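Table S4 entry, GTP cyclohydrolase FolE2.
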Amino acid sequence: MNYLGKTADFMKSRFGKQKIVASCTGVNDLLKDIQSQIDTRGISLNRVGIKNIDWPLKVYDQTNGFQNTVANISLSVALNHDIKGTHMSRFVEVLNNIDILNPQIILSILSSIQTKLDAESSFFECKFPYFIWKESPVSKNISPLKIEAMILGEKNRDETEIIIGVVVPVQTLCPCSKAISSVGAHNQRANVKILVKTKKKIWFEHLAAIAEMSASSPVYSLLKREDEKYVTEAAYNTPKFVEDVARDAALLLEKEDGLKCYRVEVESHESIHNHEAFAWVEKALS
């Protein structure tokens, strides 16, 4: 009580009695909803919202049921030309109601955003570290490999689209370097990004496997000497440009049932060049 009294005395001396009374008794009158005011400039905005908020979540795991992660999330809506702004806090209120991600929850998030913000279109973007437990090729030691998983959602009135994807580290070995060198060939780590729109469930693990099968070799968290020998020789015997990786991943994706479209992006962190090499391809299947 003494602390509150001192605080009140300070506020009176600093701001005056009249303002203190107003702040305590007329809060609702003073807190104007500026965002809901009319805007007369006639410009609609494609997206407004919050970006890069980290959120603890559970995600489904093909092997263990689920795993805990921290997701980086962006939420937004389309804003009509006659509305001044959106209410950013309402996006976070929607997140407060979720603790696990699945397709139904994402649909619920998109619908809730539309309802709370009276918007025609809503958008959801989420990326998070996802661990796949992998067995090393010879010693059979099991260790976790971190990939990046992502989910993108968009709802326009009654039409909803969800895209899932992964970014997977792999190894590439240059076919040209191998062909022109009497010993060895330059090799490096690369990232394969796969995004798909599908009619049925597809696991992150499955997309990661497609990325790894398309490369010169997978990468591992734990390798003993016998594993290193195997991986080195496997990559040397399977030289690939980024173009090869992108095309091989595309061919594997086109064999999948239920895919509506895909996009493959490959980026190689070149070991002997002062640049990255990349290739990407996208295609609608149905």
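The radius of gyration is 26 Å.
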